[in-house]
Amino acid sequence: MTAMVTPHLFIPGPTNVPDAVRMAMNLPMEDMRSPEFPKFTLPIFEDLKKAFKMKDGRVFIFPSSGTGAWESAIENTLAVGDKVLMSRFGQFSLLWVDMAERLGLNVVLCDEEWGTGVPLEKYADILAKDTAHEIKAVFATHNETATGVSSDIAGVRKALDAAKHPAMLFVDSVSGVGSLDMRMGEWGVDCCVSGSQKGFMLPTGLGILAVSQKALDANKSLNGRMNRCFFSWEDMIKTNDQGFFPYTPATQLIRGLRTSLDLLFAEGIDNVFARHTRLASGVRAAVDAWGLKLCAKEPKWHSDTVSAILVPEGIDSANVVKTAYYRYNTSLGVGLNKVAGKVFRIGHLGALDEYMIGGVLFSVEMALKDCGVPVKLGSGTGAAAEYFVNNPVKPADKKA
Amino acid sequence: MTAMVTPHLFIPGPTNVPDAVRMAMNLPMEDMRSPEFPKFTLPIFEDLKKAFKMKDGRVFIFPSSGTGAWESAIENTLAVGDKVLMSRFGQFSLLWVDMAERLGLNVVLCDEEWGTGVPLEKYADILAKDTAHEIKAVFATHNETATGVSSDIAGVRKALDAAKHPAMLFVDSVSGVGSLDMRMGEWGVDCCVSGSQKGFMLPTGLGILAVSQKALDANKSLNGRMNRCFFSWEDMIKTNDQGFFPYTPATQLIRGLRTSLDLLFAEGIDNVFARHTRLASGVRAAVDAWGLKLCAKEPKWHSDTVSAILVPEGIDSANVVKTAYYRYNTSLGVGLNKVAGKVFRIGHLGALDEYMIGGVLFSVEMALKDCGVPVKLGSGTGAAAEYFVNNPVKPADKKA
Amino acid sequence: MTAMVTPHLFIPGPTNVPDAVRMAMNLPMEDMRSPEFPKFTLPIFEDLKKAFKMKDGRVFIFPSSGTGAWESAIENTLAVGDKVLMSRFGQFSLLWVDMAERLGLNVVLCDEEWGTGVPLEKYADILAKDTAHEIKAVFATHNETATGVSSDIAGVRKALDAAKHPAMLFVDSVSGVGSLDMRMGEWGVDCCVSGSQKGFMLPTGLGILAVSQKALDANKSLNGRMNRCFFSWEDMIKTNDQGFFPYTPATQLIRGLRTSLDLLFAEGIDNVFARHTRLASGVRAAVDAWGLKLCAKEPKWHSDTVSAILVPEGIDSANVVKTAYYRYNTSLGVGLNKVAGKVFRIGHLGALDEYMIGGVLFSVEMALKDCGVPVKLGSGTGAAAEYFVNNPVKPADKKA
Amino acid sequence: MTAMVTPHLFIPGPTNVPDAVRMAMNLPMEDMRSPEFPKFTLPIFEDLKKAFKMKDGRVFIFPSSGTGAWESAIENTLAVGDKVLMSRFGQFSLLWVDMAERLGLNVVLCDEEWGTGVPLEKYADILAKDTAHEIKAVFATHNETATGVSSDIAGVRKALDAAKHPAMLFVDSVSGVGSLDMRMGEWGVDCCVSGSQKGFMLPTGLGILAVSQKALDANKSLNGRMNRCFFSWEDMIKTNDQGFFPYTPATQLIRGLRTSLDLLFAEGIDNVFARHTRLASGVRAAVDAWGLKLCAKEPKWHSDTVSAILVPEGIDSANVVKTAYYRYNTSLGVGLNKVAGKVFRIGHLGALDEYMIGGVLFSVEMALKDCGVPVKLGSGTGAAAEYFVNNPVKPADKKA
């Protein structure tokens, strides 16, 4: 820490840690076997369920990352060789497919254009044809962080229901939950994967996995399960019910999580989602004003947590990111894999407000100009300001 | 601390605390009489002298605020009834005059229009006429925080020299030192008053007073001194030379000061000043683009640490400040006293960069619009961006 | 901060900052003129009154130290030349007398043996004889930090009442309030001086001055007051009533103070006092077991916040302190002035419990042994443990 | 955080976080793909190797716990059905065996009495007889945290060498590395498992796994490997070499790790080991003085990081732990599994000094007494003090 000003963080995770959370994590260690510990942990498990809008089931907190929670979902419910339906349209859905294959699943894959999302019609078609119900689970990436694409999870549920298909529904909502509406109960999601460092506004270090009763039942009845121990649910269930953990939990982060949840509930989680839509709309107004395009092909794919922005031919988006970083002290997301060099990303999730959107658009505008993209300076910030001014949500003279 | 995002701070002090400083102050208490303590304090005293560009003399650190350091300067060098030359052109120079009078000084006052600064010609004139050298000290406000006016301290020195006048030169540089160039040695400043919460980027709580050898001599030879104890120099000198203090020092802030000084020296203090000029230029470009005027009447008075901006007739500047605060989570400075309702202020000193200037201009633009000021959204941010892009200072692909 | 373990702090202030307070102070700066600020400050002023058990009057918070609050009390209620009754029996009562004289008061002084406290009979005598009521204020040091002596403030009130004397009663309770019972209302204290770094468990930086209505009236009616500005009450009163301050307040510490008060009230301040008595009793049991004597001559003078312990002839107490510091990482208080070399001090105030008393006695025992004092190792810790075990206050199987 | 004093932590992990580390972790999030990030991470990888005293190989940092690092070691080097040699003599060696079996290994098990350690002669015997080299790996628990037993890793190496056996050597040193000497290079250890929350003095959240070149080769040549992805080495190697990670790393903890390593190296890691031996000796002197026995059967098994202490017949050790916690604000380790109710544990690893040992012995002594164990108060603290005074290591008048 030797910088006068810490770089401004607009990657799509880790997100900015609210000061209240930072303060809550600035604490000495504690005994995770103390008789007082469950008084702290048990309410957390309950409150997490509200964040996922679950009907039944439970939430696991692993000292890991979202990737670990992915692995836990698979290892605890599926057997090697099981058939699953997946789609790939960005770096993170790609990695999820890669994991499924490495863990021995038999992936029925829909390979989609990057910039689109979960192909509902194809899914419906495949599920309808799978009358033998060989497909054990359907995977859907709620928010593809690499391309800024959100998918319609309710639509996947409809496809399953239309086909009367009993497969489980697995959702990667690492960059969704806490920022985008996730209705596990209503949408019949069985495993929903998240992590601490996005909508929960914490440092990386918790894999958060919400599972339905159906998934818990699958776990119980499973034969030929994959080898696992660290990520096993049984050990967690046995101890979590008493407020403890099978091995040392990441108490510092869980203390922070307590405050994060408090902040989310204080604002109201539906208000939090609305704020994300509002701020994302400001960013998209700026992109339009710059004459640029999003990587997301259609408005229905627009993500409210991250915008992947295409640079014009002949420009290397990596230079835009580098210029923003070194010259304007602003961290943007780079383009990954297929869209490397072609897109840069603005993460707009977590603890954010209009000022911060103004700040990042200001930095981006200058970096684009410096890199030879012919944007009019002030056009993006102006368009975003226009959007915010015309859509006021807070009183001007007292606390909202 | 229950806000998701802490309000963005653009008052002209307290300024934003750099993360490194915040981290350094997050510490347990220590024994201020331990034999190791002087190894920490003695270098601080030396390093502070670099920040003031002093030739001789010393720097006192009081657990107080800038106001306390003002009082210390007067009480230790002047007697009740002493004649002093002062000027008043804003709330803080006004309060300084008020203090001088309450402490019993005989003030020769130049009452100037708010928006101007120290009247060099009048000073020269008065000093030339004071052939009996009745004036014991000349006071100059380096940076009038209420109106965003900087004054020419070298010019005051010239006036003194031209008149061959032996009066001491007292400078209020609370919102100057560490952000604006202060050359105590070269300019022959005898008492320079500052505080922790401006250019030193710390919480409020330290009154920092730099004094020349001439001021120290005045202290020694003084008869009929004012009553004082807490702010007396003698007690400080006796103990400071051993690295200690006459009463419990504010060690937490002094630990923070250590890191602040490290940050200032790492950037290079002349680079810090240049950064302030650059960022202030961006703000002024925005003010021009909005079609508004600064309170500072002429460019020579423009302050690089704070801009006081006049709102059009019929608009209440307090509403702009309130709207920015409640709707856009941005703290601006209000208009004080004579300029209440007429100006709002953007503090742009301390740990700041282009992004932050973009952010505050974005918030201000929206707040102005909301309050009925006919600004074109994007005009201010665009003009500032234009300035920054056309005047690059950092490489785009590596650390500066 | 490069030590593996931070030195254990047992000086009589600054005291250990509770983790909750440390966390509360780890925050960004805020606008002390924001419309939300009074919602934070006004309850603090009220809650401070509870800590002082006041009936009427108000509490001032200066960005200074206890020394500054001393000065404020004098400057706002007394005139140069006023006669005051004081007593001197340790370094801090000595410094208070020194200040009174330097500020121009006419001190009627009782010079007492170090190790005793306020001489109630002498005070009664002097007051009874002062039928002309020339004495304007009576000063009493509640807790002399240098010698570990507490005085009977209720007794001073009785002496005043017996003489039907209208003088104001000034109490230095810097190392008392928040740790020792202070009943300003019941005892008719007019100015009670404290600081942030003792019973309030904060870093140094706040001078806290509680004043009665009588003192406020004295302030209003005063002619020929001392010159002052920083420490003046009038400016504070004008702004405090709206929740603001006349100059920038030390918001970081006041945020910490909020949490300190919450902790004190959560434990119950009378429980806090009882805890101090209990822990001090453990320390005194150890001193007895070591065969050493306290500087305080009689049990009635025993301070529950600090013990000054006499070393045997031929031993230099400074060596004990140095050995404890360098070899056992434990900060003790040195002997000051007349008792330099003769006593070392254990501060036992603020956020402390039995374990910590055990720890410091352990370190002291070893340091004494190393320095040639013939203590039996385990005798002091054993005696303290005996006291605690025989006087249990908390259940062994659930939260108190 | 509402306690006046945070409970004193003497469980065998998480350990006390040094203030410097706590300060270093009090930071905003950063971009783990920034071009500056490798400048921070690459030296960490190198410095970790010094902590393990490795010759070749590398260290992996997983966002997990030690349990995860166990799993990673197995999954990346062994195949389902592989034969391994293990021993079980406490809760953590028991869990390791459990994991090995659940992951599909064929465990040749030495079931030892709790209170003993790795059975060198049996190991030698089994290895000598395994002329077909069916055993692929030999597992040894360096420090069994549940019983306070250290084992002789160099001895295991000797047994392997004597048998000219090519099996890999896996060591669980979760509560060893950083506190007990670990010479991976000299002792030919192939996988050494640790975590952040013990000798590295950090919060839980990092699984730290050091592997030799031989282990890396085993990984490369392995067929029929276990399914894994999160804990796979290949992904780590690919990205670590550039200073990056295959998924979001726990940057906050890694920043803390930087400071932890700095502290360890500043003290000198061999000095750190000596300090652990010294402090453990003080604890053992106290146990003797109390007339109690350690769970560790013989001095050769004594652990320098944790002491498991047997309570007399008729006493429930859980009551001792509860009393220490609720009445004396001190967290001890409970007895686990076979020794539940029979032992309580004092963790004495990490950032500790004599004062803290004195404090915990003081609390324990009182809790024992309260629970009916006939200890003489002061006997334990006295014996420990005796040990420390008779074995001085630091000068009494200057920094060591």
From TrEMBL, chains A, B, C, D:
User: Which residues does the record give as substrate binding sites?
Assistant: R345
Which chemical reaction does it catalyze? glyoxylate + L-serine = 3-hydroxypyruvate + glycine
For this UniProt record, the keywords arranged alphabetically read as follows:
Aminotransferase, Pyridoxal phosphate, Transferase
N6-(pyridoxal phosphate)lysine modification sites are K198
Cofactor(s) listed: pyridoxal 5'-phosphate
Q: In which pathway does it act?
A: One-carbon metabolism; formaldehyde assimilation via serine pathway
Gene Ontology molecular-function annotations: alanine-glyoxylate transaminase activity; L-serine-glyoxylate transaminase activity; L-serine-pyruvate transaminase activity
Q: What is this protein called?
A: Serine--glyoxylate aminotransferase
The source organism is Hyphomicrobium nitrativorans NL23
